[in-house]
Amino acid sequence: MTAIVADDLVKEYGDVRALDGLSFEVEDGEFFGLLGPNGAGKTTFINILVGLARASGGRAEVFGFDVEDDYREARDRIGLAPQEFNVDRFFPIHEVLEHKAGYHGIDPEEAARRADEALKTVGIYDKRDTRFDWLSGGMKRRFLLARALVTDPDLLILDEPTAGVDVELRRDLWDLVQRLNDDGTTVLLTTHYIEEAERLCDRVAIMDEGRKVEVATPDELQSRGTDTLVVTLASEAVGVPEFDVDGVNDVTLDGRTLSVTADSAGSVAPDVVRTLDRAGLDIADLEIRRASLEEVFVDMTRLDEEKPAEVEA
Ligand SMILES: Nc1ncnc2c1ncn2[C@@H]1O[C@H](COP(=O)(O)OP(=O)(O)O)[C@@H](O)[C@H]1O
Ligand SMILES: [Mg+2]
To answer: Which has the least CB within 10 A, 47, 141, 223, 309?
Structure first.
């Protein structure tokens, strides 16, 4: 069963085309990342999945249920931790969770049990009688996750869950969500912390300007970037030796450090070592630096201002 199907989704807000023919699928059980610069359309896509926005064109399904025609069935399977805080501020947080569970058809006794469990899972059970307003920023983030979990969703959607949270909480949330995924929950995560996607996601979709640019594993994406083979020579060389190695893009020398760029540093390394050996240069150290996913991402999305201006006729 496919967890999410997006099929040629379009969303227009007046003149703004927030989604411009977005299509991709997420498998049941996947940890899937949606990456893209601000304004790419990530939140708009999520809003369509949960029924907060209506698509102007195309369609979307969650576990086989059309998000519009079978709204109830689709929505009941989703737990959403939204980007913006949208919480009833006047009730103790355990009550907010009980209301939420009740709204999704869970009986009061079970709702109370689930509320306690969700608060324990995210580590704020001792704040159960506190109002949302009075929680610290980090606890608010934890609470949003608890609220997403209280219905025991098959699909957990996290929209920039770690934006502006400290490192410790970020690690905590990562561990937690990883565990939920290990136990079978499908996760859709939007983020612009590339490290987050790299660590957590099985696959990522890169979006820009309402369209999908690419879907791949973080590893596949990384391998598209340029690697650098950094060779530390035993002593300073007079100049760069003659390099005739297939796959090497560029060689630079700075003191004892020789940097060789290549699409795949691993596959040129043996020839590089042989070349240096023949030139009589001893190697003290050798290190392969892979392109970071961040570099590849920036390259693929090219922030607007870096794009050549399109001339209107
Ligand atoms: N309710 C709205 N009304 C008008 N424009 C909107 C609305 N929501 C989003 N947009 C616009 O749609 C585009 C995509 O926004 P959004 O989905 O929030 O992107 P992201 O979550 O990737 O940062 C942006 O240009 C944004 O200004
Ligand atoms: Mg957003």
So the answer is: 309
